[in-house]
Amino acid sequence: MELKRAVELIARAKRILLIKTNLLGDVLNFLPVANFLRKFSPGARISWLVTGRGYPLVSEFSEVDEILLLNERLLYNYGNLWRVGRWLREKQFDVLVTSYQEECFLIGSLALLSRAPVRIGYNLRNRGWFFNMVVSKGEAERRIEIYGQIVNLLGGKWQDYVYVPRASERGAEDFAKRMEMEFGLKRNDSFCVLHLFSQKATRSWRWEYGDELIRGIQKELGLIPVLVGSEPEVWRWGEARKKHGLINLTGQLSLLELYYLLSRAKLFIGIDSFPLQLMEFSRGKAIALFGSTDPREAQVSSAEILRVDVECAPCWPRLICEQDYKCWRLLTPERILETAKRILTGVGA
Hints:
This protein is an alpha/beta fold and 349 residues long. 40% of the residues lie in helices and 15% in strands.
C-alpha cells in the first residue's frame, strides 16, 4: 500500500487496534505511538490488545478508548491463533499497529488474520508477509526509537509524543501530600531514587554494596535515599535500613505514582528495568547501571550509562554467571558516587 493512501485511511479510521502485550518496558516504549494516533486520528476509537502483565500500564498511562485483555496462554499458543484472529476480525478494525520485530511470527500472523485494511508493523525477513505498511528500523538503536519509527513513517516526530497523558498537576499534588503524610518525604526535600536489585542475579547489582551506597548518597550527595521496586526480598532489605534514613517505597506505589516520584527526584540510580525506562518520560537525571544486558537497546537519553568492560558481558539472557558476577562487582559504590557528583554539579559533563 502506498504511504499517501495509508495516511488518508488512518486519518479517517473509525477503529484502530494497537498490539503490544506484556513486558512493561515494551508497553511503555510503545506509548508514544498511542499518543500520536490519538492526535492523528481524533475521531477514531483506539483499542489496545494487552495481557495481564501489561494491563496496569495501559490503564494508568494511556488514553485509549478500550483495553482488550487477553490471557497470555491464548496469545502465545499457536493452537489458539485462529480463535483469537477471528475474535479480532469480528471487531472490524480499520487500522492495526504493532511493533514486534521480525522474530515474532505469531504476532504477524495475528495481524494478518485480523484482516484490517491497513496493517503497520515490521517486516519478516524482508518479505512483507503480514503488513502492507512496513516499518524500517532505520538507524535507531534504543527500543523507544525503534517503536517511534512508526510515528516517523506517518510524518510525526516520536520525540514530541514521549509523555504520559494521564499525568496531571492535580495527581502530582495529591501524590506529594501522600508522600509527606505517610513517609515523611516533604515537598522541598531533595532525594535520590534507587532501583538496584532484581530477582535474577545476572541482572541485579550487588546487595552487599547497598549500605555503602546509601551512606554515600546521604553524606556525599546530601540527598535522601528512596528505594523502589516490587520484590518481597527488596522490601525486606529496605525495611531493615529505614533506621539508617532510607525511605522504603518498595511495593507501595502505583505505576503513575512512580512516574510522579521520578519526576520530582534530583537523581535516579538504577539497573536496566522499567523504572529506568520511565526516566525517558520524566526527563530527569539518571545513572543507568548495566551489567549483563546490552545498553544499546535499553539506554535512556537522559541517563549516564555506567558499566564495566569485561569480556563476558553482555550475556543476558544467561541466568547463571561463571565469572562471579564480575560486571557487577567492579561497578562499585565509589564509582557510582563519583559519577553522581559530576552529574549533579555539571563538572566535566
